[in-house]
Amino acid sequence: METRHCLGCRAERVVEQPPCLDGHEDCPEWVCTECGTAIVFGWLTADIVSPPRRARRSA
Q1: What b/e sequence results for 18-41 when a residue is b if at least 16 CB atoms lie within 10 Å of its CB, and e otherwise?
Q2: Is the entire prediction scored with pTM above 0.70?
Q3: pLDDT in tens, 4-59
């Protein structure tokens, strides 16, 4: 049984990992068993990398 801080409950709660629909081997998605809030532990990687923003020119 794993516990983590749940933002929905604002307290430590038991969390469980649902089946991963995205096919991750080590899925970062967990769910609070008390209120059902989805919680992500770890880092997610972006599929698309945004180009760097250009600096605004002052007029």
Answers
A1: eeeeeeeeebebbbbeeeeeebee
A2: no
A3: 999 999 999 999 998 988 887 788 889 999 999 998 877 656 555 666 777 666 65
